[in-house]
Amino acid sequence: MFKESFIINFVYALFIKIKYLLEDSFIYSVYLKICKFLNKCLESSLILNLLKRNIDSGKKAENSFIINFKKNIIGKIAAYFRFGKTKFARGVRESFIINFINKKLILALLYLVVFGIPFFPTIILVGLSFLAAVIYIINVLIGKIKFKAPGFLGLFMLLFILAYLFSAITSYNMPNSIYVFFVFVSLFSTFFVAKEIINTEKKLDGVLTVFLISAVLVALYGLFQYKTGAVMDEAWVDAEAFGNITVRAFGTFGNPNVMGEYMIVAASVCAGMLWKANTNLKRGIFLVFFVILSLSLVATSSRGAMLGLLFSAGLFVLLSEKRLIVLGIILLLAMPLILPQGIWERLASSVTMQDSSSLYRISIYQASMDILRDYWVTGIGVDAFNLIYPIYSYAAAVAYHSHNLFLQEFIELGIIGFSLFIISLFLFFQKLYYGIRNTKKEYKFMLGAIFGGFSGILLQGMVDNLWFNYKIVLLFFVIMGIGIACVKVGVKKTNEENKSYSGSN
Length: 505
Known about the structure:
By secondary structure, the protein is mostly helical. It contains 22 helices and no strands.
């Protein structure tokens, strides 16, 4: 249908014509020189030189005593169930349940998880994530899935969970913090499940397509809310500062900021799939998806989310598609003319910080910094903010969290847990950037989109505690897992094609 469309073919032909005209122009030659200069500056920067190293190729985490000990123990258990001649070992091998809970079931559960983030209740998402993790562990123990060393990223993620457990045990809000820890670690486990179970391009594309279909459905619902004027909380809009905004889309998330966080990632992933697509039909579908997702994000009127998407787009262009730099600059300059007045004013208020929402956050940040000064070593513990904050707020703004992901984790976990969190994020970005530099073109686009989208949601995390909503916790870790899986699949496929090419010569 898209292939035969007169409009799409006309637009494509027009684009090619304009492209050839521009490439022969003086302006384009100047533009190329500027791009080469910027690229040279970026390539020589300290940060990119740190990111471009494949840390796991040096002194690997898998050579550590802990990992080798685990591999030996798990290897012996797996060998017993696979080759053992005892009645129990044979019974396990031949069990219907054991044969049913295989890798296909884990993948199906992962599909359900990524589709259900906007729609399923939290308890269902926790159950599905926990079940997928348990089945994965069983498959490793019986030898159906080979145990693999986690690498430095996986190792630091495990250490972070241990720090989170310690923080839960020592929390001022025991025993509720233990319940929160169980929920958190169940959602966290999707990182390991996704990065190990997604090992082919077909699985990667399948999971991401299911994620985007779910995102588009909730985006359409959000646009419907915006169009029909859904009833919302009056606190979501400062009527004095933004009188033009009378409704904000919140979809199935119950909060426009949470929906905005979700849409940053969804729109970024969709951009990656659009550039990765190899047919006009797929490009047409993902282009429509991208427009819907972007419009729904704007409909949330979430300043952090809009800035996050812009930041994501900028990183994607710099990392994967530098030809769009000029177009990006033009669109940025045209934003005051493109966006509705009320939304543009709200976005611009991110700089002025004069509306009630900004002043409300500043008040919370002040009290949060006072808490941090007293508890920076050990932290106050998981889920204890609402107990400690009133002591420091002096009856100012009421808050259930610090409205900043990094500040919140520092306050709860203390310096050690917070450091493990930051190191894990750095290793994740390092892995993505290594993949961008060492994979085929289409994977560069996909990884650049995930790099940008994750950076965008972290930018939103500077003005909101992303992990206050469990659905975003799940999104956070499952996208991390998918990102690492994308690196592995992309590098593997690129190496295979390079070997095939060199062999044919």
